[in-house]
Write a structure and sequence with these properties.
The protein is of the alpha/beta class. It folds into two domains: 198 residues, Ribonuclease H-like superfamily/Ribonuclease H (Nucleotidyltransferase, domain 5, 2-Layer Sandwich), CATH 3.30.420.10; 148 residues, no CATH class. It is built from 16 helices and five strands. Strands 3-2-1-4-5 form a five-stranded mixed β-sheet, sandwiched between helices. It is globular.
């Protein structure tokens, strides 16, 4: 559409939705199948995007490790290339390993693979790398941080008690008109990936709970929170350590100097006096020791965030179509990532008729 606007064509005719959709799918297919430079040091980012039931796509994005702008900014979608889209009904380690082998025709053997800690992905990557010592695997720092918070908070008796009371209070408050006093709903899955909303709510309550101007409604329903004041302060400190650590790793990656960078970051935060925070810091040190490169000049990225961001964009494009199964709009991933000129898009459309995309969707 930007190209049409630049050529002043949108005033006379606007392409139909089906036409734009066809362009996206044809261009995405071209990105999925075009030859790639196998001489680069490739990295791969691998994850599943779930569509309906047990059906899912295994998505592999890649890029040149030597072209990553560590430090100035985190990795962006423009830095990536669509490498593979594989529909899977049942995913296990063998199936993942097989697909990592298959996509070698596009990139050769990669230098680095980054993934979350899903059992099938980890096993498949480990088996793939067993006979390829040049392949390194790094676990996504955000998922590691979420698991560390979960382990820490679940191990504390106050944690389960707090959640139970919070849920009881939320159930009582929800039918009332005081929506601002209703705690955000807990996500059934992945709530430790993004606990900020819950923590903001908990942080807000003490300011309305104590003092001469205390809100009587807050006192009535959340007076029990006073018992957990110390625990909540500790949870906030632990979350801040994880948040700042993940941000550091996302921007600067993993390298030989990472331990020193993290120690300086944590020291500047001034929150390491707490036992829970110290325990988290030790766990992060173990993560860095396990995954940092051994060579002095190497640097690895430690985040799959940009891959998950592309999932979100594609889902917004699909809207309700994803309800009917594995929509062909998954090919839009090829256009969501990377950069291309108008000439390249024209060449892709000329080389990819719609019937080729239709055949791909049917297989």
């Amino acid at each position: 559409m930007a190209t049409l606007a630049a050529r002043q064509l949108v005033d006379s005719a606007v392409p139909a939705f089906s036409t734009i959709r066809s362009w996206i799918l044809r261009s995405g297919y071209a990105e999925l199948t075009r030859p790639l430079d196998r001489t680069r040091r490739w990295f791969r980012r691998i994850d599943h995007t779930i569509q309906v039931g047990d059906q899912k796509w295994l998505v592999i994005l890649g890029g040149s490790l030597d072209r990553v702008a560590f430090g100035p900014r985190p990795l962006a979608r423009n830095d990536l290339q669509l490498v593979a889209l594989v529909p899977m009904t049942h995913s296990n380690g063998d199936a993942v390993e097989r697909q990592l082998e298959v996509v070698g025709w596009r990139t050769g053997v990669p230098r680095l693979i980054v993934s979350d800690q899903g059992n099938d992905l980890v096993k498949g990557i480990r088996d793939y790398a067993e006979w390829r010592p040049e392949v390194a695997h790094v676990a996504d720092a955000a998922h590691v941080g979420a698991n560390l918070l979960k382990a820490s908070w679940d191990s504390q008796p106050a944690g389960s008690q707090f959640l139970r009371k919070r849920q009881e209070t939320s159930t009582k408050r929800r039918p009332s008109a005081c929506a601002e006093l209703t705690a955000p709903r807990l996500r059934p899955k992945g709530r430790f990936m993004n606990p900020e909303v819950q923590l903001r709510f908990v942080r807000m309550l003490p300011t309305r709970l104590d003092g001469p101007a205390a809100d009587p409604r807050v006192v009535e329903h959340y007076g029990w929170l006073r018992e957990y004041r110390e625990a909540v302060t500790g949870w906030l400190a632990e979350h801040e350590l994880v948040r700042r650590t993940v941000g550091q790793l996302r921007r600067h990656g993993l390298h030989r100097g990472t331990p020193g960078e993290l120690n300086r970051l944590w020291k500047g935060m001034g929150i390491r006096g707490r036992a829970g925070v110290r325990s988290l810091a030790r766990s992060w040190c173990g993560y860095v020791k396990r995954y940092q490169p051994r060579a002095a000049g190497d640097r690895y990225m430690a985040s799959t965030e940009v891959l998950e961001s592309s999932f979100g964009t594609r889902k917004r494009l699909a809207h309700q179509q994803s309800d009917s199964g594995l929509t062909g709009l998954v090919l839009a991933t090829g256009m969501i990532v990377g950069t291309r000129s108008e000439e390249q898009v024209r060449a892709s459309l000329d080389a990819t008729p719609q019937k080729v995309v239709d055949r791909w969707r049917e297989t």
